[in-house]
């Protein structure tokens, strides 16, 4: 079992290696999901890889950000650099980057990021077919679901076992983007889940009284994951790599956590022979071992499901002692409160609404403040030189600083006035000196101190604060002052090594492959708020996006209507509605089944749509309904995860969901008629499948053509990703709902100087609706479905529970309806009006369609998501 550690700096990288990590993952420059952490220079990358390889430690580079069209060139150059430096694998999300790697760097190992949403066996097998050597599973999976995914293939499985948990499924969070244009899928998340929110009404489940409307709570701030005690269960489930989250964490955190897991993994080694691989234990280890859980039961042989005759009792005692020592190390890591996450239901200890979710030890709340001196009743010791974080309530704003000055209070009582600032002793000395206050009066003398164990003190802060703000300790003075820390130094040999590798552009054949995207460099800037023309770098010059070639004749954009309420289909729809997309789910199916006569009358327009999350237990339902509807002649489908195309494979040719065995053990051919092509999958048992395209005519001769469309949740943000969808068998795909005008034009169009071959796959876009900002598996007793919820910035939304998921929806839909003419002109094939979860009447539906393509009155004006303001 590999231990994979994070590193966001040279110091933490060296600490991770020396603490015992088998592999370390770092962020690749400008293309990783922690963009706010800063980039490593090429020489630093060379130094880290050399440092690790000398110690037989592997290095993985995370390039798991979605890429805009103009970023493809820079990303390809980064891959070329990393491959030249000998990085052991890339962790990626973007389908366009996947295409570059597979075509030009076939020997470079690829790991599928958790942002690719591998939440069932279908997704794991699809990623294997695409050439990934490892799959990082979604954090939301239980041990049983992990084991089922592991049995489906021999690919390496990686899971997060320690660190931060996102409230939303990775790859489906739009919150940071929707309310500010900073995409979490591009590494720019501003962590809205760590903010305090207040209810505007409604009742909290489990409580009979109305909660106070003005009391904010941290409803979405997840406790950290900790799975130290679950390592044997994860090994049994087939996990090959356990991952620690934290590329933005301190060296202290990385050191303590890596050492804790190293201890337990090493102590587990003698037990592996007795641990029976297969299905994990049910209803065991509901609570992860935690320094916050003093009532944890003792581990026994029964817990490990090991036959006692196969286990050396002395080895078991060593393992149990390692667990105890590991817990002590984790307590020193200054992390958040921890829990076992989603590994075993029922899901407990996932959210603590009373805590902000800040990293570090909670020291206390500010009582009073004056002239940046703040009084606090310390719960834990603080020393001069410790690193603290100030958390503003309820805004969620944070400020980190180093303790420079503290002073003791000899006596204090609630309500006492803060004493004027005194003249302080030089750092490193004790005692007190008098100070002169206002009016020349001598201020009371307070002793200046270098450390405080607990109790009432005053701390000098770098900014003004308010009573009620919180303080957290995030790093220790002793560690920060040095000592025996490992050193990783960038030397001249590293600079010489990258001198010929670090280029602004990749080699010529890659540039040719990228086509017109090769003309777009890495920068763009607005010419004004909501400006139409944005400047994008092109080689040594620039061009305005308005120079993108537009269709001279097309001024009409076909519309698709997406519904979850069949009552809106009663009556005739305008001809502008080309397609009607019906959302298939356990909850919606009874409504649609009852209204079958209504939607069967418009069968030629109907597209059935699947949800982005289909957990293992729900796969039989969807297989059954897909079969029923196909038997009735419905062959147009929209998938929300690229692996869902496997649901349309004939049962006799399908890989089973759990055991991963083919019936004959030999070569299997799978044929699916997708759009204008027939797609065949062929491969031997245990090998990756290969996609082969046949002619449309042959497909029609065998029967009705199955047409597959892609939803916006496939996260297509560039033309190469769109082309990858075509190669996977899709007839059309929606662009990412997060895209802005400038990127969409570059993705769809061609500049006057560099015309692009027309795409072989059509592109749509969601142009109206209330997309889920969070999609979470958690259903907390603290939630009030359909009750209004307000952010610290007074942004309004609500929670709904749908098909086993908790969705956060904006109070008002976004709309691009006024821009239909320009969307058609740049080459968009269709626009999707999504009326799900809105309870619209038939009259409201017709009103929305009437305003399509027109400027609405001010009273009906809606936000445009990122389309005008830009996507960061």
Give me some keywords for this one.
872 residues, alpha/beta, TIM Barrel, Elongation Factor Tu (Ef-tu), domain 3, 3 domains, eight-stranded parallel barrel, eight-stranded antiparallel beta sheet, 22 helices, 40 strands, 23% helix, globular
Notes on the structure:
The protein has 22 helices and 40 strands. The protein is globular and about 80 Å long. Helix 2 packs across helix 13 (about 490-500). It has three domains: about 1-165 and about 225-335, Aldolase class I (TIM Barrel, Alpha-Beta Barrel), CATH 3.20.20.70; about 360-475, Translation factors (Elongation Factor Tu (Ef-tu), domain 3, Beta Barrel), CATH 2.40.30.10; about 560-770 and about 815-860, TIM Barrel. The chain is of the alpha/beta class and about 850 residues long. Strands 1-2-3-4-5-6-7-10 form an eight-stranded parallel beta barrel, surrounded by six helices. An eight-stranded antiparallel beta sheet has the order 16-15-21-12-13-20-17-18. An eight-stranded parallel beta barrel has the order 25-26-27-28-32-33-34-40. It starts with a strand and ends in a 21-residue tail after the last helix. It is about 25% helix and about 20% strand.
């Amino acid at each position: 079992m590999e231990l994979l550690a994070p590193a966001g700096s040279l110091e933490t990288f060296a600490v991770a290696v020396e603490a015992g990590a088998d592999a370390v993952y770092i962020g690749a420059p400008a293309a990783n999901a922690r963009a706010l952490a800063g980039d490593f220079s090429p020489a630093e990358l060379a130094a880290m890889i050399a440092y690790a390889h000398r110690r037989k430690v592997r290095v993985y580079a995370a390039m798991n950000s979605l890429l805009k069209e103009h970023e493809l060139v820079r990303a390809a150059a980064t891959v070329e650099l990393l491959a030249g430096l000998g990085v052991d694998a890339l962790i990626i999300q973007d389908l366009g980057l996947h295409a570059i790697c597979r075509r030009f760097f076939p020997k470079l190992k690829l790991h599928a990021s958790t942002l690719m949403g591998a939440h069932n066996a279908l997704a794991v097998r699809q990623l294997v077919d695409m050439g990934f050597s490892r799959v990082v599973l979604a954090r939301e999976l239980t041990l049983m679901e992990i084991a089922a995914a592991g049995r489906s293939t021999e690919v390496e499985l990686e899971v997060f076992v320690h660190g931060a948990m996102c409230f939303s499924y990775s790859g489906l969070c739009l919150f940071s983007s929707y309310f500010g244009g900073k995409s979490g899928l591009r590494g720019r998340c501003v962590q809205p889940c760590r903010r305090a929110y207040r209810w505007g009404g409604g009742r909290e489940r489990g409580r009979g009284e109305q909660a106070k409307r003005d009391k904010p709570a941290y409803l979405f701030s997840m406790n950290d994951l900790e799975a130290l005690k679950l390592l044997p269960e994860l090994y049994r489930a087939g996990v090959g790599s356990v991952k620690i989250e934290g590329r933005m964490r301190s060296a202290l955190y990385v050191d303590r956590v890596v050492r804790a897991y190293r201890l337990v993994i090493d102590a587990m080694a003698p037990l592996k022979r007795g641990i029976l691989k297969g299905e994990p234990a049910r209803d065991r280890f509901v609570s992860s071992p935690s320094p916050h859980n003093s009532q944890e039961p003792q581990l026994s042989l029964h817990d490990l499901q090991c036959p006692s005759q196969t286990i050396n009792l002395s080895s078991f005692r060593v393992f149990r002692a390692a667990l105890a020592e590991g817990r002590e190390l984790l307590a020193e890591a200054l992390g958040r409160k921890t829990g076992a996450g989603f590994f075993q239901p029922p899901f407990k200890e996932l959210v603590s609404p009373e805590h902000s979710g800040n990293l570090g030890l909670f020291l206390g709340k500010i009582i009073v403040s004056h002239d940046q001196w703040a009084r606090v009743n310390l719960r834990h010791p603080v020393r001069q030189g410790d690193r603290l974080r100030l958390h503003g309530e309820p805004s969620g704003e944070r400020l980190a600083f180093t303790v420079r000055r503290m002073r003791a209070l000899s006596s204090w009582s609630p309500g006492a006035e803060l004493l004027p600032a005194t003249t302080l002793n030089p750092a490193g000395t004790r005692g007190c000196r008098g100070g002169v206050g206002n009016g020349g009066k001598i201020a009371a003398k307070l002793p200046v101190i270098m450390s405080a164990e607990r109790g009432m003190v005053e701390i000098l802060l770098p900014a003004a604060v308010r009573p009620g703000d919180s303080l957290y300790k995030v790093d220790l003075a002793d560690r920060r002052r040095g000592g025996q820390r490992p050193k990783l130094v960038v030397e001249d040999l590293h600079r010489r090594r990258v001198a010929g590798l670090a280029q602004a552009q990749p080699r010529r054949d890659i540039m040719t492959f990228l086509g017109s995207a090769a003309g777009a460099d890495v920068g763009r800037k607005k010419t004004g708020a909501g400006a139409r023309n944005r400047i994008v770098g092109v080689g040594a010059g620039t061009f305005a996006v308005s120079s993108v070639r537009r269709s001279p004749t097309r001024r009409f954009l076909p519309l698709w209507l997406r519904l979850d309420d069949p009552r809106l289909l009663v009556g005739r729809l305008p001809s502008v509605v080309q397609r009607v997309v019906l959302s298939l789910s356990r909850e919606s199916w009874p409504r649609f089944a009852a209204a079958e006569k209504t939607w069967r009358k418009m069968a030629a327009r109907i597209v059935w749509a699947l949800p982005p999350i289909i957990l293992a237990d729900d796969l039989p339902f969807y297989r059954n309904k897909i079969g029923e509807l196909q038997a009735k002649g419905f062959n147009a489908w929209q998938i929300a995860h690229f692996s869902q195309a496997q649901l349309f494979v004939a049962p006799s040719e399908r890989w089973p969901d759990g055991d991963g065995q083919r019936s004959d053990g030999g070569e299997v051919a799978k044929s699916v008629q997708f759009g204008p092509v027939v797609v065949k999958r062929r491969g031997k048992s245990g090998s990756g499948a290969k996609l082969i395209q046949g002619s449309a005519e042959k497909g029609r001769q065998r029967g009705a053509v199955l047409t597959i469309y892609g939803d916006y949740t496939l996260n297509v943000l560039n033309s190469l990703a769109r082309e990858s969808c075509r190669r996977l068998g899709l007839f059309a795909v929606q662009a990412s709902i997060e895209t802005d005008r400038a990127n969409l034009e570059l993705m769809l169009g061609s500049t006057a100087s560099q015309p692009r071959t027309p795409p072989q796959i059509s592109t749509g876009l969601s142009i109206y609706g209330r997309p889920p900002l969070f999609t979470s598996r958690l259903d907390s007793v603290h939630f009030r479905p359909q009750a209004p919820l307000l952010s610290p910035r007074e942004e309004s939304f609500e929670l709904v529970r749908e098909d086993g998921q908790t969705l956060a929806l904006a109070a008002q839909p976004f709309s691009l309806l006024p821009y239909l003419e320009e969307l058609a002109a740049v080459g968009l094939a269709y626009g999707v009006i999504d009326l799900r979860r809105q309870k619209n009447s038939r009259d409201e539906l017709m009103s929305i369609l009437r305003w399509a393509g027109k400027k609405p009155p001010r009273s009906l004006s809606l936000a445009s998501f990122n389309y005008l303001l830009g996507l960061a």
